Amino acid sequence: MKINYSYLNEQFKNPDPILDDIKKLISSGDFTLGYPLTEFENNIKDYLGVKHAVGVGTGTDALFLILKALEITNGDEVITAANTFFATIGAIAATGAKPVFVDSDNSFNIDPEKIERAITTKTKAIMPVHYMGLPVNLNPIMEISKKHDLPVIEDSCQALGGKVDNKFVGTIGIAGGFSFHPLKNLNVWGDAGMIVTNSDTLYEKLILLRNHGLKNRDEMEIFGYNSRLDSLQAVVGNHLFKSFPEITENKIKNANLCNSELVELSDVITLPKVPSHIKHVYHLYMFLAEDRDNLLKHLQDNGIDAKVHYPIPLHLQNACRALGYKKGDFPVYEKQCEHYITLPMHQHLNAEQVMYMVNKIKEFYKKN
Ligand SMILES: *Cc1c(COP(=O)(O)O)cnc(C)c1O
C-alpha cells in the first residue's frame, strides 16, 4: 500500500468548475481587489463571526502586516513559540523586531506558564501559534495580555476552524493571520493569506498597508506594501470554502481513529495533550515516538510518506544565530524535536489506510 502525504492530485481531480469561474473572472478583468476577493473575505468573516477580514498575499504577510499595523519596529521584542514554522519568526524579524521564544508544554504548543518571565520593557506583543491545527489554550494568555497591556496576535495559519471554548482561533486576540498555502486546511493554487480582526482602527490601517498606503486612487496616506490576495486565488478559495467543513471533519475522523488505536502504545508513543475545551483540526498529525528515526524508516519502507516537522530546533537554525540562543535553552521543545513524527492524515484517506499505518506502527514496536 502507498500512502502519500500530498493529496492535491486527488483534491483537484476535476478542476472544471473552478476553471469555469476563472474564465468568468478573466472576462471581467477584475484581477486585483476584485469581486471574488470581496466574496472570499465575506465567507471567512461570516464563518468566523468576526467583524473584518482582509485578504493579503500570504500567511507570512498576514502576520507581518498585523505587526506593522501595531507599529512594531526595530528594537522591539515579540514573544512567540519556540515550536513553530519558519514563517512566524520571519514575519517578526522583517519588522526589525526580535523574536523571543518560549518553550513548549505537553500540547507541543507554547507553554502559557513560561510567557510572563519572557516579558521585558521591549516586549510589544505576544504571538502564540496554533501549531499542527491544535489551538493554544489562550485563556491564561489573554489574562497575561490584559495584565501587561500587550496585544495577542494569533498565528492561526495552521488552524482555521480550530476553537478555544467555542470561539474560533484568530478571533480571540487583537488579530489573527491565516494561510491558504496548498497544504493548509483551506487551500488555493499558490499563495494567499487573510487577516481577521474585530478592531476598526486596525482594519482601516491594514486596508491601507496592503495596497501601497492608498486611501483612494490618487491619495497616499501612509507608506505601505503591495500584498493583495489575487482575485484568481480567491476564486479557488471560494470553491474550497464550500467543502472546507467536510474536509475538516474527515481529517478529524481519521485522526480520531488513529488516536484511539495509538493509545494502546502509550509506553512508546505520546499524543499531544488536547484539553476538552479545545478543538483540534489536525493540519498535521504529529506525535512523539520512541526510536523515532527507525520508526520513520520503517514507515517509509512500507510506503507511508511519514515526515518530521522539524528535526532541527528553530532557535538552533543558522538564521537565528544573532538571537543568541543555545542548545538547552528550551529543553521541553528540544527533547520533543528528537521524537516528533508526522503521519499523512488527510481527508482522502479511508479507514483501511489509517489502519494500515496503525498496524505498521504496532508491528515496529512488537519487533523491537
Ligand atoms: C504556513 C504558515 C505560515 C505562513 O504561511 P504562508 O502562506 O506560507 O506564508 C505562518 N505560520 C505558520 C505556523 C504556518 O504554518
* Average pLDDT rating: 97
State Rg.
21 Å
Tally of helical segments: 11
What is the approximate shape? globular
Q: Quick one: biggest sheet?
A: 4 strands, mixed
Q: Based on helices, strands and strand pairing, what is the structural class?
A: alpha/beta
Helical coverage, percent range: 25-40%
Which stretches of 5+ consecutive residues score pLDDT under 50? none
Strand content: 5-15%
| SSE pattern, N- to C-terminal | HHHEHEHEEHEEEEEHHEEEHHEH
What hetero molecules are bound to the protein chains?
Answer: pyridoxal-5'-phosphate
What is the spatial order of strands in the main beta sheet? Answer: 1-9-8-5
Q: Terminal Cα separation, in Å?
A: 23 Å
Number of strands: 13
What would you note in describing this structure?
- The protein has 368 residues and is of the alpha/beta class.
- Helices cover 38% and strands 14% of the residues.
- A 4-stranded mixed β-sheet has the order 1-9-8-5, with helices on both faces. Strands 3-2-4 form a 3-stranded parallel β-sheet, with helices on one face.
- The relative contact order is 0.15.
- The model has no long low-confidence stretch (mean pLDDT 97).
- The structure holds pyridoxal-5'-phosphate.
- The site of pyridoxal-5'-phosphate has 15 residues, from helix 4 and helix 5.
- Pyridoxal-5'-phosphate is lined by residues 58-60, 84-85, 87-88, 129, 155, 157-158, 179, 181, 191, 193.
